[in-house]
Amino acid sequence: MTYHITKTIETNDFEKAKELVTEALKNEGFGILTEIDIQATMKKKLDKDYKPFLILGACNPHFADQLLGIDPNMSAMLPCNVTLRQLENGKLEVSAMDPVAAIAALGSKSIEPIAKEVKLKLEKALHTLA
Description:
Layout: E1 4-9, H1 14-27, E2 31-37, H2 38-46, E3 53-59, H3 61-70, E4 80-86, E5 92-97, H4 99-103, H5 112-127
Helix pairs in contact: 1-5
C-alpha cells in the first residue's frame, strides 16, 4: 500500500503551482493551516541546499470535527500534509498523505469511512491540477 497520492505538474513556476494547489484544495473544502518551507529550513539549520519544497498543512474542518468527535487523539494525525517540491527535471510534484494508509494501523472501523472520503477529496483536488 502506498502512503501518498502524487501528481506531477508540467510547470516550473513554483509560486503559481502553490496558488493552484491551494485553490484546488480550497475547492474541496480544505484550508491551509500551516506552511513549512523545507528549502529555507534546511539551509538555515543544516546549511544544505534544497530545491523549492513546501509542506502545506491542509485541513477540512468538517472531517476534522468528525474525527475528533470519535477520537480526540486523532489530533496527532491532523492536518493532512500536502507537499509541493521541485524535481530534478524542473517539473513540480504535489503529494498528499493517503489518509486511508495513515489510519490502517489503527484498525478503527468508525474512522475508516471518513478517511476514505478525505482521500477522495484529496485525489480530486490533485486530479484537477494541470
